[in-house]
Amino acid sequence: MISITAYGGVDHIGGNKILLEDGDTRIFLDFGEPFNMKDEFFVDWLTPRESRTGLKDYFFFDLMPQIKGLYGEKWLKDTDLKYSKPEFDAILISHMHFDHAMHLKFVDDKVPVYLGAAADAIRQSWEATGGTGISFGDHDFKTFRTGSKIKIGSVEVEPIHVDHSVPGAYGFLVHTSAGCVVYTGDLRLHGPRSDMTREFVNRAAAEKPVALICEGTRVSPKDPRVDLSEKEVEEKARKLVTSSKKLAIVSFYPKDVDRMRTYRDVAKATGRKFVVSTKVAHLLESLKGDRRISVPDPMTDPNMLVYVRQGMSRPLPHDKHYKDMLGRNDHVVCCDDVAKRQEQLIFQTDIMQLTELIDILPSPGSLFIRSKSEPFEEDDVQEEILQNWIKRFNLDFHQAHASGHANMEEIFDIVRRIGPKVVVPVHTEHADMFVKCGRVVRCPVARKSIPIP
Ligand SMILES: [Zn+2]
Predict the structure, then answer these.
(1) CA-based, 20 to 30 A from 433: which of 94, 279, 285, 287?
(2) pLDDT tens for residues 381-393?
(3) CA 100 to centroid of ligand 1, rounded, Å
(4) SS (H, E, C) 327-357
(5) What is the distance in A from the centroid of ligand 1 to the CA of 56?
(6) How far is it, in rounded angstroms, from Cα 348 to Cα 337?
(7) Which residues are close to ligand 1, an ion, with C-beta < 5 A?
(8) ω into residue 453 within 30 of 0, thus cis?
(9) How far apart are CA 143 and CA 54, in angstroms?
(10) Over the stretch 48-83, which tens digit does the pLDDT of each residue have?
């Protein structure tokens, strides 16, 4: 008998930590941080003292499960959980999003971590540009690609690429002693590489799995996300930029490489240049060597420029090679350049860089295209602040985004096609709605194991 225990990703979108046990073999599928983990007891200026007391504050509020033989020694020294040598064989990461990978840092470095080759490049770029506190630990990071077969104890894992809003995203077929267990990770069918998701679904269906651990981000009685494809985002953005004679400002998730390509194409089509942050430039640079992913190179692409913030003498402290390159390249611009050439540029920013607008002073009526999901909560603080900035600078606000997740009907169709004996919904607020797909549903309860079959 095998078992599945969800330590995260239950009744919530994100924070997946799914333990799969087959006899003595114990592997985690993802090890992310829930987006809302700190909402109840912490706020911007009040954060857990993890650099000083490790997991103590997290355990006190029961924000992390106390699991023997999982965490690194330095994180436990101030807690009641005694350090013991690792009792887990591996952690498999489906993709490098915060809510799937961020808690790797707490795991004992002796536990190896498997992830896609592109995902590992993203991990390294994230650590190099993310500022202090961004670390995924000193694990043995082992990379795979579609077609790899990874033997871990009594199980064999086959990663298969899926389309999601970040490169290097995979689903897993885990061959166990009780049959095949399939894990979707996060996936979508309306993106530029839907062929990869379809390939995953076909391969999973052929295994006649005993269980399917399935994401359900958009499984909801009222899904707030709009069904735009990446092509439609491009068309909408192109129309907006074409009809504007002012600066176009765009914001998107910093790892959404499809979106970076889209805005490069919009810049090309409208005779503008797409100005990206050093963080985005670093990520694209890191993925350049991967021939399976087409990424624009902001240092050489005639339609792109890189923005270096004023006073940032050390834009990327950890990466000397990159800093030297930025120092020489004529693709680098600063706020004065952007201020002077507003009508010729598409300027990428995120909420952390909004202060740059004070130096750039976009002329009133400049475009602001939010190219990421709309806020889901009505009292979203970041959204309120963003809208205050929009008002203060008198910007013309628009929304254009293609979601990283398949919609409810598509998810149910995926479940029916794969046809597992049982489906275990995760990464969703509405696990109970999966009954509509006509399979046996086992809604997970956090930290309670589900025996299979
Ligand atoms: Zn994701």
Answers:
(1) 94
(2) 788 899 999 999 9
(3) 7
(4) HHCCCEECHHHHHHCHHHEEEECCHHHCCHH
(5) 28
(6) 14
(7) 97, 186
(8) yes
(9) 28
(10) 999 999 999 999 999 999 999 999 999 999 999 999
